[in-house]
Amino acid sequence: MSVDQKLLIVSAAALVSADGLVLVQRRPDGGAHAGLWEFPGGKLDRGESPEETIVRELEEELGIDVEIADLRPVGFVSQAWGSRRLLLLLFLCREWRGHPEALHATELRWLRPAELYELAMPPADLPLIGILESIL
Fold first, then answer.
1. What are the domain boundaries of the chain?
2. H or E stretch including 109?
3. How far apart are CA 12 and CA 88, in angstroms?
4. What are the helix (H) ranges across 68-123?
């Protein structure tokens, strides 16, 4: 990465139900990747750890409470994104409080990892599906 290229760090969560289904959300119209399916999460705010970002984003996007101790790092993707470099960190989470609701997304789905390949997803999310398949 050249010194003039900015690093964009994004934390995402693979929420996994007791029966092995993974939650994905559909991005709303009007923004980047509108209408695509993704793992919930978002950009790190200044001074936040990747784990703190997930806790904040899951509460904002899905209305659920997650403890940092319940997050397990499972993989990452590094990818050019325009003039920036995207570093997408994926955490696995099997424990949370509350029922996920689409507070910012247009729709939620619970799917088996293999079913995620059938969805239109951002390019950075696609390599993470194989990681989930191998561990679930």
1. 6-135
2. strand 107-111
3. 7
4. none
**Residues 12, 101 contacting (CB under 8 angstroms):** no
CA gap 131, 90 in Å, rounded: 10
CATH architecture assignment, domain 6-135: Alpha-Beta Complex (3.90)
Residue 118 neighbours by CB under 8 Å, 6+ apart: none
Distance separating alpha carbons of residues 20 and 133, to the nearest angstrom: 10
- pTM of structure: 0.92
3-state helix, strand, coil split of the chain in percent (to 5) is: 25, 35, 40
| pLDDT tens digits, 53-103 | 999 999 999 999 999 999 999 999 999 988 889 999 999 999 999 999 999
Task: Please write down the long-range contacts of 72-76, taking CB distance under 8 Å and 24 or more positions apart.
Answer: 74/14, 74/128, 74/131, 74/132, 74/135, 75/127, 75/128, 75/131
Q: For the beta carbon of residue 15, count every other beta carbon within 10 angstroms.
A: 24
Q: Which amino acid is at 59?
A: E
Closest CA to 58 of 22, 97, 87: 97
Nearest alpha-carbon partner for 23 in 89, 97, 102, 77? 102
